[in-house]
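user: can you give me the structure for this one chain? tokens are fine.
assistant: on it. calling the predictor now.
[tool input]
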Amino acid sequence: MHLARFGRVSLGHFPTPLEKMENLTKTLGGPQIWIKRDDCTGLATGGNKTRKLEFLLADAIAKGADTLVTQGATQSNHVRQTAAAARKLGMQCFALLERRVTNQGDQYEQTGNVLFDDMLRCEYEFRPEGLDMNAEGEALAEKLRDKGLKPYFIPGGGSNTIGALGYANAAAELVYQADSCGLKIDKLVHATGSAGTQAGLVAGLHALNAPIDVVGISVRANKETQITNVHKLACATSELIGVKTDLSRDLVQAYDEYVGPGYGQPTDEMVDAIAMLAAEEGIFLDPVYSGKGMAGMIGLIKQGVLKAGENVVFLHTGGSAGLFAYQHLFSRQKAA
């Protein structure tokens, strides 16, 4: 795997820290727990999409683009980071926001990531839930093209083979960090949604022949759908980076027990997980992705799936700005 063959622009702060969570390890009484801090990538409060955007924007520049077009849910971390990347590189950004969550109060479409979208001068429009949002985004790009702009469309989550290169690269970064400190990683746990992060990790670790299990905690799709989506993209990414051996479907793990009522819908386990990590380690998760990912990791520890004696790394994918759209769940003053 030699990723210097692919174009890449500098947007983030890398490598991100790999830290031991001593307090959480003691509290849960299971495996040794570490955290990979991709909330510290730097771009507009950071997050996992920055890694993908470094490769995607290099492709956009190579194709002569002056405008980025993308899509996501209302509180999309991806849209916020894409808008920031556009500003950094002197491009315009247009986004479509899907109203997947409509029951979290009047401020939901004005605060958190949406506030940052405004500050980043992203031109966004809302769409109802259930549309083919990538098709909607492609149609918007075509309209902009007719107006004389040169748009580059980025699918939701930056989840295509070019975007997944960011997490193939992150796999190499993580393995190097672990080797440097003598850490043998058994499991890597994270929230999985649009599939690009997990697919990139699986492809990268497969290319490196690194025996680390990647455990995805789904935030939207059911288990079989998520595994299928991740495996398909991981295979395509593996082919892109030149891996000669087949990537088995068995390398993709996903759990769907922590989705709750649906995407972006709160669960008690998510609220408890976010509160626990803040109190134990001083680290803020987000309510849509990493909070449910942490809830899943805690659940798997309690079930004995993640065992004492193992070293488990939790990938923090960022998104704490989304907490402000769900503040009624966490404010002690409001609870009082």
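assistant: here you go. The longest strand covers residues 92-99. The first helix runs from residue 22 to 28.
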